[in-house]
Amino acid sequence: MLRSLKELTLMRSLSILLVVLAVGCAGSAGTSGPDGARGPTGPTGPTGPSGAVGAAGATGATGPAGVAGPTGPTGPSGAPGIAGVAGATGGIGATGATGATGATGATGATGATGPQGLPIVTAGNQSISVNGVYCGSSGATAGNFSDPTGGTAKGYHAGKLYCQQVAACGNAATAHMCDASEMVRSAQLGLLPASDSYVWYAAGTYSYFSPSSVSINDCVGWTDSSSSTYYGPVWYLGAGVAHPSQTTCSFVEPIACCK
To answer: I want to staple 122 with a disulfide (CB 3.0 to 4.6 A). Which of 47, 127, 137, 216 is the partner?
Structure first.
């Protein structure tokens, strides 16, 4: 143990001496030799502390839009904005459905009384005006009148039915075959047409001529057209010269109609 201590002390003394010698004997440094070959990379050292944050780089280009996410809940309504300028008037829309009928209004005042109409005589479902005037003429027929409606009426009754179908007389239910007084009245009023033709009218009288044995009897009440001795009254419709006359019942003439 003591020897080892002495040896250790001796070795330390020698070391100090060598250092002194080395310092004292050191000459000037020689030229550096060439670099030796790079040694192998040593193991990675531990990570150093984080450096200071660098300045922000320039903004990169916008990337492509991502897939739309689900619609979020509706937000609260915003405050109303200022009213905009009124737009142009649109076209007229389709007519709407008719509304319900309104209540009936109050009855108006009674109007003035109209002029007195012609007297009318009614029998059953038939009626006839009295003291009428010429209104037109029917289709032509011989002196034996038959029902123009296909019924069984004959004579004077059939003559009235003819006149009820005359459009110029308004197809009036009161239209009828004119009698002598109505033809005279119509002539005085200038109501007869100047057609240069003849029309049957009802005289309602009987006349006999001898020795020809001719009877003017409204063609036996407008039921005969074959006898050469029965005549019927006609009225000539001429310009300014309208007048009554007579002819055989076989002649085919229109019927003068009045209402």
So the answer is: 127
